[in-house]
Amino acid sequence: MDRFDQLLIVIAVAVASDLVASPAHELAHEMFHRDERRAQMIKRLRETKAEPVSAVVRSGIALKTAPAAQDYIQLYEGDAKLLTENLEHIQQTSTRIPNAIGAEEISAPPA
Fold it and tell me: Taking Cα atoms as reference points, which of 81, 94, 79, 77 lies closest to residue 31?
């Protein structure tokens, strides 16, 4: 495999990651929307719950989790406390998405 082939693989993986990121993020929003707590959630909470779901889904199917996910969470003033308080809901949703599309169950990436 020459350098050109390696570069094509890198580009393909980056594109695949981007193609999964947005739909996973929006699907997380939809799943949270069905939750009775949705009406009470402020935008900050909705965004800081959906983006980690997208990151876990990407990581679970071996796609790179971009630093942009961390930046996005910080944009909405997400912090460790907020993420910890919502960890169970994030984990449940992160598992439901791949299961819904027939993928093998995923787990959170190693810390």
Answer: 94
Structure-token match 């495999």, residue found: 1
Locus of tokens 């580009």 = 11
> Which two tokens mark 90?
């994030």
Give ∠ CA 1-67-83 in degrees, rounded to 5.
135
Distance of CA 105 to the CA centre of its chain: 15
**What is the C-alpha separation between 71 and 21, in angstroms, rounded?**
14
pLDDT in tens, 1-41: 776 666 666 666 666 666 777 778 788 877 776 665 656 66
Q: Give the DSSP H/E element, type plus range, for residue 17.
A: helix 3-33
